[in-house]
């Protein structure tokens, strides 16, 4: 069974439907954090938002989701157990995105100048693709759309390969100052991990629970290695 199989059964307000709405709220917050953190790092935008306060909000929502899941299982121990397992797993993926957004802002603190050059141009293209991936993930999760979820997983596979190729190229650089190479490699790595966590969320709409986070055929993605 997939998480999307339970959506129609949750037309009325239940503890698990409330937990699902909280996960969707977290996805929206994470998307805003992602866009903000990259503006700070790549455009030298002034840090008008407290990224740590936003992340604490994400943490509180994660705890609330887990509480809803536990309360549901305590009252209905034989009802929607698989859905409860899905939610308790993917909420951790959603929360982890906030941690990577904090890491991106912290990179900006160590690299105050505006980064430029071909690697940054490619990073901006990847940023745009991940923002689209984010929109698709939120829509798929809201609607329980397994086909759109599958598209998110395919997008991540392509994105992860592109990030790895760029990181490999950076490691082979001989003319770039070490600090510049490290900043660019970490930027690409953090963006890749955001994409991977979105893929894990989308996989809940495509895969049964025991294959959560894996390809539909059950094999690991290269992006997870």
TrEMBL record:
One of its GO terms (biological process) is intracellular phosphate ion homeostasis. It comes from the Bacteria. InterPro entries: PhoU, PhoU-like_sf, PhoU_dom. Gene3D superfamilies: Phosphate transport system protein phou homolog 2, domain 2. Residues 24-107 form the PhoU domain. This is PhoU domain-containing protein. The lineage of its organism: Bacteria, Bacteria division WOR-3.
């Amino acid at each position: 069974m997939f998480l999307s199989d339970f959506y129609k059964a949750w037309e009325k307000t239940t503890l698990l439907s409330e937990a699902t709405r909280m996960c969707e709220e977290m996805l929206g917050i994470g998307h805003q954090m992602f866009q903000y953190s990259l503006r700070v790092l790549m455009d030298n935008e002034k840090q008008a938002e407290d990224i740590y306060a936003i992340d604490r909000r994400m943490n509180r929502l994660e705890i609330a989701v887990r509480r809803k899941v536990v309360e549901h299982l305590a009252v209905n121990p034989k009802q929607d157990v698989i859905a409860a397992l899905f939610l308790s797993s993917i909420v951790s993926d959603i929360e982890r995105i906030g941690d990577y957004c904090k890491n991106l802002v912290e990179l900006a603190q160590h690299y105050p100048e505006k980064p430029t050059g071909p690697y940054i141009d490619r990073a901006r293209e990847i940023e745009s693709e991940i923002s689209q991936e984010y929109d698709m993930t939120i829509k798929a999760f809201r609607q329980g759309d397994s086909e759109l979820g599958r598209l998110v997983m395919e997008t991540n596979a392509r994105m992860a390969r592109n990030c790895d190729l760029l990181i490999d190229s950076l490691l082979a650089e001989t003319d770039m100052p070490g600090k510049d190479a490290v900043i660019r490699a970490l930027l690409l790595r953090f963006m890749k991990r955001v994409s991977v966590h979105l893929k894990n969320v989308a996989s809940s709409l495509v895969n049964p629970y025991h294959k959560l986070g894996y390809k539909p055929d059950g094999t690991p993605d290269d992006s997870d290695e």
